[in-house]
Specification:
Elements: H1 19-29, H2 51-54
Length: 66
């Protein structure tokens, strides 16, 4: 319940590169919509690879070893 009336809340996990597209869709659908963007480190399920899969050779190709 919002301060004045009932509200709908939508949670969505997106790739950082898709932010502008999603923001434009929100603005097109409802120009007065309130939305927030948060940096998440973990999602329990979904299509995104877990950190353990991303570890290993090639995780940081721009970083040189010591």
């Amino acid at each position: 319940m919002g301060t004045r009336s009932r509200v709908n809340i939508i949670y969505c996990v997106i790739k950082r590169s898709d932010y502008k597209l999603v923001a434009n869709i929100i603005k097109e659908y409802n120009p007065r919509a309130f939305y927030t963007i948060e940096d998440i480190r973990f999602a329990s399920q979904g299509v995104f690879p877990t950190r353990s899969i991303m570890r290993g050779y090639g995780s940081f190709p721009w970083r040189k070893g010591k």
